[in-house]
Design goal:
The protein has 476 residues and is α/β, with parallel strands linked by helices. The protein has helices spanning 32-48, 62-74, 91-99, 123-131, 134-148, 160-181, 202-209, 218-226, 230-242, 252-271, 284-290, 313-326, 435-445, 459-469; strands at 9-15, 52-54, 79-84, 105-110, 153-158, 184-188, 212-216, 245-246, 276-279, 306-308, 330-339, 344-349, 361-365, 382-386, 390-400, 403-413, 424-430, 451-455, 472-475. It has two domains: 9-180, 3-Layer(aba) Sandwich (Rossmann fold), CATH 3.40.50.10940; 183-475, L-fucose Isomerase, Chain A, domain 3. 37% of the residues lie in helices and 23% in strands. The two termini are 33 Å apart.
Length: 476
């Protein structure tokens, strides 16, 4: 399992010309080299507030850039922030572009917030004039950016404060890219035969997005569930019940059975070191062997694996990407219906859904959809949850035209009371689009019904990540 708490690893590449280094020696503000080393120290300190930074020192020569590449490669940086500190020869930078192994690169021009130059006949002023020449170096370097054709490269011009913000978003996306390549998904036990548009190629998943996919069996889940002691299940059930209203329609023995199967599912994910488990929870084999669909994930704060329902690997990708980018709670939804008079749509999903954010509202309710079936624990309860209000990023992932696509929009979750029995849900309103346009765009894109939601506006990071993964990205 990947370390979700590790910091972004950034390489800092600062480029200067050796021929300028001794200019200004003995002047009031020191030599060019002294001024640039002071500037570099400040850049390093500021960037270190948001990332683990690997800095080889200012790059003056071709040998320096080779050392930088070796350091960045050894430390497995998520991305490199590259800045020309003034004009400089491009022989060092073109070696970096050619020889640095595949890695996201953010090439920035720092715009000074003010420049106070006087008479540059003075050595001190002339050295300062050269120090301010980053635009010359950046423009020169831009030609090599295009000619080298390096992938996963983004450019940006802004003040240092703006560059730090851009680097934070870019670094978050680069970290997500790296973690995706180290991640493992599990499919239990098959794709959903009722929803063919959700099918994706596991090879394509590994090649383009990153995670390895493992295939698990219901019999393995049954074995893990059987090994969950009644005492462990009872403790978890009491902890869950303590934080929610348990409705009168809940049978305690079925509540216990559901919690027990949920723990079994989580332990199975832990056994295989899964970062995401995709559960086909409407599979009749699951009902026959387990007697229910597990309804309580996570059963404790110690559970790290993400679990999504209905055998949708793309749905798992969407939710896991949001988890990597947001670091917070992620929920799984499908839009149900549009309420035009009130300008919103209802959305949510039954099955495993994170119910542990205290800002939401949770009740324990019988699974009314399956309450009248003949399965052993028919009607076994779920965590019936209303998502917290506020701005959300809504993300879809699926396979389209031979490659993965990410489709995202911003929505507002409205203050809502429980009204859709058993389904974790809320009412939503698109941000920046009317209802007709929002869903017309989704329909035209060719999506499926499944989406992940997470707090805040993650669109910029999603754009960066899509470019890094070379997958199609569409905003709606």
């Amino acid at each position: 399992m990947v370390d979700l708490n590790r910091r972004v690893r950034a390489g800092l590449l600062l480029i200067s010309p050796q021929r300028f280094s001794s200019l200004g020696e003995g002047t009031k503000r020191g030599s060019y080299r002294e001024r640039k080393e002071k500037e570099a120290a400040q850049f390093y300190a500021d960037l270190s507030a948001q990332a683990e930074v690997f800095f080889p020192g200012i790059v003056w020569t071709a040998e320096d850039v080779k050392r930088a590449i070796d350091l960045f490669t050894e430390k497995k940086v998520d991305y490199v922030l590259a800045i020309y500190l003034s004009w400089a020869e491009d022989f060092a930078f073109i070696r970096f572009l050619r020889d640095m192994p595949p890695c996201p690169v953010l090439f920035c021009h720092r715009i000074r917030e003010r420049i106070d130059l006087k008479d540059t006949h003075d050595d001190d002023e002339f050295t300062e004039y050269l120090c301010c020449g980053g635009l010359v170096g950046s423009l020169e370097a831009s030609g090599s950016l295009v000619r080298m054709g390096r992938q996963m490269l983004s450019v940006f011009a802004g003040t240092w404060a703006e560059i730090l913000h851009r680097a934070q978003v870019f670094g978050c996306a680069a970290r997500a890219r790296a973690l995706l390549k180290d991640s493992t998904f599990g499919l239990l036990a098959c794709m959903n035969e009722a929803m063919w548009s959700t099918y994706v190629d596991p090879y394509m998943l590994f090649r383009d997005v990153g995670p390895e996919l493992r295939f698990l069996s219901v019999s393995e889940l049954a074995e893990e569930t059987e090994n969950v002691s009644e005492a462990d299940a009872m403790r978890a059930m009491k902890r869950i019940a303590k934080g929610a209203e348990v409705l009168d329609n809940v049978d305690e023995s079925k509540f216990l059975a559901s919690v027990r199967a949920s723990i079994g599912m989580e332990r199975l994910a832990e056994k295989y070191a899964l970062d995401t488990l995709i559960l086909n929870d409407i599979d009749t084999v699951l009902f026959a062997q387990i007697g229910l669909r597990p309804g309580f994930w996570p059963t404790s704060p110690d559970v790290s694996a993400l679990i999504v329902p209905e055998g949708d690997i793309g749905g798992g990708v969407a939710c896991y990407v949001l988890k990597l980018l947001s670091g917070g709670h992620v929920n799984y939804i499908e839009p149900f219906h549009i309420d035009l008079p009130n300008g919103n749509f209802a959305g949510g999903h039954a099955g495993p859904n994170d119910y542990t954010d205290p800002r939401g509202k949770c009740k324990i309710s019988s699974d009314v959809r399956f309450a009248k079936t003949g399965w052993k624990y028919a009607g076994a309860p779920f965590a019936w949850y209303v998502f917290p209000a506020g701005e959300k990023t809504m993300l879809h992932a699926s396979s389209q035209k031979g490659k993965f696509q990410l489709v995202a929009g911003r929505v507002e979750a409205l203050e809502t009371e429980h009204f859709l029995a058993t389904y974790s849900h809320s009412l939503f309103r698109p941000i920046g689009e009317d209802m007709r346009t929002f869903f017309t765009n989704l329909l035209n894109q060719g999506v499926t019904q499944h989406y992940g939601i997470a707090d805040g506006n993650l669109m910029e990071a999603l754009r960066d990540l899509s470019t890094m993964l070379n997958v199609e990205f569409r905003e709606v």
